[in-house]
């Protein structure tokens, strides 16, 4: 069972962006699978670090595109990115300190974030820049 399942409502109808979003969801699901098979602590922490780095890089690129285009909603969009990154750091800290995380809580948080962010912030961005 996947932690997060891609749904059509996540799509922003830009193939390259949807592809990156699917990749992020795939990385998160791979981590969840590893946690379920009792992966060693170092493997899980490294996987979380990779997820964080990939998502942060995606956000940085998206924010550069928004700045270059003088996107009117940059501040709110960036704040939403920062909120997710903060939540991911909390997960990393929890796994690093305790060796586990609350799967149900993480699933709800990420599913809500992906649903809300893709449908609102990303959809508006790609509609305005498209």
Please, could you describe this protein's structure?
With 130 residues, this protein is mostly helical. It contains four helices and no strands. The protein has a single domain (13-129), classed as Four Helix Bundle (Hemerythrin (Met), subunit A), CATH 1.20.120.50. It has helices at residues 15-36, 41-68, 74-98, 103-129. It is elongated and about 45 Å long.
Give a short synopsis of this structure.
The protein is an all-alpha fold. The chain is 78% helix and 0% strand.
Mean pLDDT: 81
The total domain count is 1
CATH topology: Four Helix Bundle (Hemerythrin (Met), subunit A)
Poorly predicted runs: none
What's the CATH architecture?
A: Up-down Bundle
CATH superfamily: Hemerythrin-like
For the termini, the CA-CA separation is 35 Å
Please give the number of β-strands: 0
Percentage of β-strand residues = under 5%
Task: Provide key terms for this protein.
0% strand, 130 residues, mainly alpha, Four Helix Bundle (Hemerythrin (Met), subunit A), 4 helices, elongated
List the helices and strands and how they pair.
Blueprint: H1 15-36, H2 41-68, H3 74-98, H4 103-129
């Amino acid at each position: 069972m996947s932690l997060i399942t891609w749904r059509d409502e996540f799509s922003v109808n830009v193939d390259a962006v949807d592809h990156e979003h699917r990749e992020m969801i795939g990385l998160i699901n791979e981590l969840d699978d590893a946690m379920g098979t009792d992966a060693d602590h170092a493997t899980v922490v490294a996987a979380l670090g990779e997820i964080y780095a990939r998502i942060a890089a995606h956000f940085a690129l998206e924010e550069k595109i928004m700045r270059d285009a003088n996107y009117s909603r940059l501040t709110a969009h960036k704040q939403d990115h920062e909120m997710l990154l903060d939540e991911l750091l909390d997960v990393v800290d929890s796994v690093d300190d305790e060796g586990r995380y609350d799967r149900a809580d993480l699933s709800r948080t990420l599913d809500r974030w992906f649903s809300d962010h893709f449908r609102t912030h990303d959809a508006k961005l790609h509609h305005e820049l498209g």
